[in-house]
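User: quick one, sequence for these tokens?
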């Protein structure tokens, strides 16, 4: 894995892709990784911005996407994909199938006793956690 707080993920992406860039970037961090994420894309790449843990991205001129190689940008929200109950159930069923099949591995990097839920929330808010955080009864 590439840990963006410890090394330049842009340099690693360029190294791994021989300078070409990646077709898609999923960025949940926001302001701190915005520019690097855009610069990690190959021509006509897609940037999916779905979070702003480090703060909201500053306004930018749309022409920047053209100048960087005709890039695409989307900012999806889960509510648009789950507004109808049948869509919510279908999406949840697909997710559970993928997880139960073992196609993805969910890392549980920290657990807290339920009595320490407040501390778990403080750690999440302070970005002291990675992966999934579980509260145990």
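Assistant:
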């Amino acid at each position: 894995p590439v840990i963006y707080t410890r090394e330049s993920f842009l340099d690693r992406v360029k190294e791994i892709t021989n300078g070409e860039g990646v077709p898609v970037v999923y960025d949940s961090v926001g302001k701190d990784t915005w520019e690097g994420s855009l610069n990690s894309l190959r021509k006509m790449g897609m940037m999916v911005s779905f979070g702003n843990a480090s703060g909201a991205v500053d306004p930018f001129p749309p022409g920047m996407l053209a100048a960087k190689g005709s890039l695409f940008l989307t900012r999806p929200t889960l509510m648009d994909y789950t507004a109808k109950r049948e869509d919510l159930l279908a999406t949840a069923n697909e997710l559970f199938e993928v997880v139960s099949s073992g196609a993805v591995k969910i890392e549980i990097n920290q657990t807290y006793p339920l009595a320490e839920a407040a501390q778990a929330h403080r750690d999440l808010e302070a970005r002291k956690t990675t992966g999934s955080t579980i509260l145990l009864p």
